[in-house]
Task: structure prediction
Amino acid sequence: MAYWLVVLFNLGLAAGLFGLAKILVDLRQTLAEVVLAIYGADQATHDLLGDAPAAIRLGEVGIRATRQQLGRTAVQVQQFRSLLGGLALALNLLRRWQGWGRR
Result:
């Protein structure tokens, strides 16, 4: 009787391990498909963004030039404001001087 119990136990164990092996083989296949999908997405991203570094560098050069021009323009605007302030003062003095002579 014990002999048959050991045989049945071994058959059950073998069947369970065979099922586990089937699950692992299926899992391996699924993971291989996932790897291929990720590789394809990576390749598509690389193809899409392959020229991006050159465009980014070009944009950085343009931004740098614009910032430099903005700095020069800010100085020119300040100088122009100073000139307008001087002209306004001169006009006020001229008006006062002309008004002084009329009285």
